[in-house]
Amino acid sequence: MYNPQLDTFIAVADAGSFNKASEKLYVSPNAVMKQMNLLESNLGLHLFERTHRGLQLTPAGQSLYHDALYIIQYSKDAIARAKHFNPQKTLRIGVSFTTPVEYLISLWDKVQKIYPQLKFELISFENTPDNAREIMKNFGVNIDMVAGIYSSNLLEERRCAAMLLYHTPVCCAVPRNHKLAAHDKLTIEDLYHETIFLLQHHYFDDFDIIRADLLKNHSAIQIEDISFFNMDVFNRCVNESKLMLAMPEWKNIHPMLKIIPIEWDYVIPFGIMYSPHPSHEVQLFLDAIEQ
Length: 291
Prior knowledge:
Blueprint: H1 5-15, H2 18-25, H3 29-43, E1 48-51, E2 54-57, H4 59-85, E3 89-95, H5 102-114, E4 118-124, H6 129-137, E5 145-149, H7 152-157, E6 161-169, E7 171-175, E8 195-199, H8 205-217, E9 222-226, H9 231-239, E10 243-246, E11 257-260, E12 267-274, H10 280-290
Parallel strand pairs: 3-4, 3-5, 8-9, 8-10
Antiparallel strand pairs: 1-2, 5-12, 6-12, 7-10, 7-11
């Protein structure tokens, strides 16, 4: 209905900063700046002045700001009126490289048969610690649900709920040029004298249990803390020839990593995370899965 760059423009104008706007929009500051540069170029207008107090609108920017608010609201009202004659309920599922949606997609045929009015939309987001925290604390604002691993302390800290789909085994991510990559299954002794990336203490309760076991009973394994699962860590794993605890759902997460099962009983919950006060559409989806 309108150029979506207007939403970014409004966010930047309200925040007075590319960085603050990026936090609200769940994108990088660089992406916000690129959108604003492109908007100014397409319009042939100078919209912002950089001052010691942050970004301020130029006269042209102030004019566009007020009109953009009207355009956006008018478009939303027009869509709402149209939907009145063609009601469809859309679920927004967050997608990042560590939050796979394949399992949810596999359930969709079943859900559609029960509730054919439900539709879904995949929303891509940068899975940084700050973004993940804000999204999970604000389910229902831009994203309704995310599929992935979780633990009870994570749900409590981020004030969200979860439906358990299954328990997924904790495996080992091994660089394909590592000697252990020739194995189809690993023993705990295979990991001796290796360095393993493990989420920092107090982030996931389930990983803390594994950490305690390794420190107490398998001190030949060197643990190196990581703050989050991201591409930088996966690249380090490959380039530094180190191992990392991972999930089988991540089998295609990096072309130079092989996910190999470990002969132990450690598993971690995998499920759907959503608001503790889910919308009607989210509740229908959850009910359909339970059936």
